[in-house]
Design brief:
Layout lengths: L19 H21 L1 H8 L21 H4 L12 H7 L2 E3 L3 H22 L16 H5 L1 H4 L1 H7 L16 H23 L8 E3 H33 L4 H11 L9 H27 L4 H6 L21 H18 L12 H28 L9 E3 L2 E3 L14
Length: 411
Amino acid sequence: MHDHQHLKTAGDPSTWIPSFSQLIQLYFVIITATAFLAATLPFLRDSILSYGKLDYPSSTTNTATATNASPAQKKPLAATPVADHGQFFVVLKTLRVPKTWFAHFYVFATLWMVYLSLDLLVYTLSSTSSTSPVLQIVPSIFISTYPSWSFLTLLNLLGIMPSHPHSLSWTPPPALLLAMSCYLIQVVRRWYESWFVERPSPQATLHIGHYLIGITFYAAMAPAIWVDTYESWVKSTVLQNQTDQHEHQSQHAIEHENLFGSLPLQTWIGFALFLWGSLHQYRCHVILANLRKPSSREASAGVQRQQEYKVPFGDWFQYLVTPHYSAEMVIYLGLYLMVSSSLSLSTSPTVPTMLYSWVWVIVNLGIVARETDQWYRTRFGDNYAEPKETVTGQQRQPKTARRAILIPFVY
């Protein structure tokens, strides 16, 4: 089924061709460095960093919440001077798209994950396993036309994606199958939320740089989940140089016979973190959406009022400025633990690819969380995060401890 001439080429120190995992790791390093530059250099920070409410030009302020704000804090964002860094950066700042395009990330991520999983399934089957029961779930049209639509086969021809020994098939370990399923659930849930839960302002925008990084991030995330485990398995079969590969294949099948029955503790911890983070992220997104929910009278009359931003309360918002970002960090930590528990320590990379992606998530969300905290302080004053009792509408919100930005007691 596959051309195996590149078995020892991808990632081999004696060649200039990187492996698939090394390319993905390099991508995460580049976007992480870019995020640091965008947060550090004033001309990039002014041009591309802000989005959504962080770039909202209205000078309206919630007077009930900003009573104790200093004159500098009460200053409208639109009146804040922006350094002039030349015509290029003026044009750069105008390259924006509607924030509603966030939904594109999750539509693409879902379809890409499904496609790549099918591609991986067929790619990792040996040419002698055409009668495998696994193939029964794959329509014959995909098998007969496989080389014409396979992204992984193209990477293999370029020497980037390694292929397995001719008579062996690769079955992802149970921990990895669980991680892949969880990631698919995550992007499908975010797709649902972006369409049916969230209520972004019609005026909110997103810089084109953010949009491109978002799309490419999800393009890299799908293979990042399984690439290390697969490459580790290929290396182990090459290093072992077994004479009886059929015996190895039978042993490989026995190891996965019970599927989720013998998962290590690390996998269960990662799965628990994933569920915990997902639950709270959904709750936080609902709270944010309800802040923008029109009254029943306005809804019945079809009135679209000007965007009014409020301070959120409830769930993790009682303790954090951006708890939906904190939950995202927990979710990706859970995915990392599940994926890393499936790796063979003897042949896996020193730093798993999923760790690179988790570092990017922390850096990216940490920067945006800091900007969000500064925006809240500018608009509502320092007291928005102080212990106090507030009244919103007919509901009295309980006192809240001073909020951390992203990580309790740390940041």
